[in-house]
Amino acid sequence: MAKLKLDLHDIYNKGYKIESELNRIINEAIEKKITLVEIIPGKGSGALRKTVKRFLDQKHIRKLYHRLEVDMNNHGRFFLHFK
Fold it and tell me: Are 29 and 19 in contact (CB under 8 A)?
């Protein structure tokens, strides 16, 4: 199974770039027919994790992926599943 990975640690304080990178990785997964994308906002204070979750919960973004999963062992990591 092919998987893409996006680590947001390097751009945690650049809000405009976060959305851009999230859009890029989702579009790349769709284009390449990738079934799993791992997004790592990290644990930290939780602000970046909330920003990512809010972005992914937008109606027009939600219809692009099949399911969002929070890693049960590491709450600083999301998995986006695509059909």
Answer: no
